[in-house]
């Protein structure tokens, strides 16, 4: 069973209004189209579904379920009883999912200084409460008493839900606050904070805006893709322009860094050129420019941050062409419908991307200053970060309590179902040799 099956069992009864208002009269970059399709205050997908993220009123007692069949039946009943779009893993497996994240922080953090945690896109506040609960019960009293947990949440309605969730334990309120703003906006962060801290991002990367680049064949230069309205004003089309956007250019540079630094022979390059002329094949590539922008801001304002991110490593049944292409899915008449083009998503569909964890690591190193884009090796940078990518099952077996999510016959949905999700951990190091 894939994670997408569990996370996107949409049960919304109403249909979103199909809208062409998300694109202005002048063409816009694909990332702006996606941002508008998802987050437009009136016509965006999430704006029309304010209750898209579900909250379980009680913890699932996995140990009392017989096995996978019983679990799936239980899950189906939960979705039928709740008019929401999906339950996140931290919600399905509360409090154990958040407890695993808390344990990973406690093992790595320097607890001699006050613990500060930021969570980007905190959802319903379940992760924040679970982490605060765990630290209150398992860390030295001074660690809990002196810690700070800051949720950076763009949605005012979710921000209020987070306050209510965390406020269920009164002592948490003096350690917790919500800042309702866009984490990718540098102006909201204020002065640079040189103190160590942790940043948590769960299922955030998949909904960040991406850009699209296009090439006529294997050796032609990349071009930016823009979205504009056709003459009928009701449909959209793509326009191609030479690379000029600085964010796209930086992302392409990071993506192609290894290729540019490889010792590719002239004969191989010539063979590729000939092959592309005989068998031209257009290329489309999706770029995580929203991730690049966010990490540039985070590394700029929190230079000593440690990062924990969890998301989809791949998505099944993607019909949209291109490397790292998204899944565009909606509900119609109670059934899921996947679109074949991202241009069909005009506020009525979710757009979510797989995370290329290798590229995420490169972007992380680039934004931290570790990876420098030079054509030679004249100015090697010291190693500033230690990083690791783990399957969700590996992460939870190491830091969590997997016995708590095991059913009677040994089936464990936390370990067995989420095969297409991973954790990325990145911590600073003082090794600059």
Descriptive report:
- The protein contains 16 helices and 15 strands.
- By secondary structure, the protein is α/β, with parallel strands linked by helices.
- α6 packs across α15 and α13 runs parallel beside α14.
- The protein is globular and about 60 Å long.
- The N terminus is likely disordered.
Which helices and strands occur, and which strands form pairs?
Elements: H1 3-7, E1 28-29, H2 30-39, H3 45-48, H4 68-81, H5 89-92, H6 96-108, E2 116-120, H7 126-138, H8 141-146, E3 148-153, H9 156-166, E4 176-180, E5 197-202, E6 211-215, E7 223-229, E8 236-242, H10 246-255, H11 257-261, H12 266-278, E9 283-287, H13 289-301, E10 305-312, E11 327-332, E12 335-338, E13 350-352, H14 357-368, E14 385-391, H15 392-399, H16 413-416, E15 421-428
Parallel strand pairs: 2-3, 2-5, 3-4, 5-10
Antiparallel strand pairs: 1-7, 6-7, 6-9, 7-8, 10-15, 11-12, 11-13, 14-15
Helix pairs in contact: 6-7, 6-15, 13-14
Condensed summary:
The protein has 433 residues and is α/β, with parallel strands linked by helices.
Defining key terms:
single chain, 433 residues, alpha/beta, seven-stranded mixed sheet, five-stranded antiparallel sheet, 15 strands, 19% strand, disordered N terminus
Structural class: alpha/beta
Total count of strands: 15
Multimeric state of these chains? single chain
Indicate the percent of residues in helices: 25-40%
Strand content: 15-25%
Average of the residue pLDDT scores: 85
Silhouette: globular
Spatial extent as radius of gyration:
22 Å
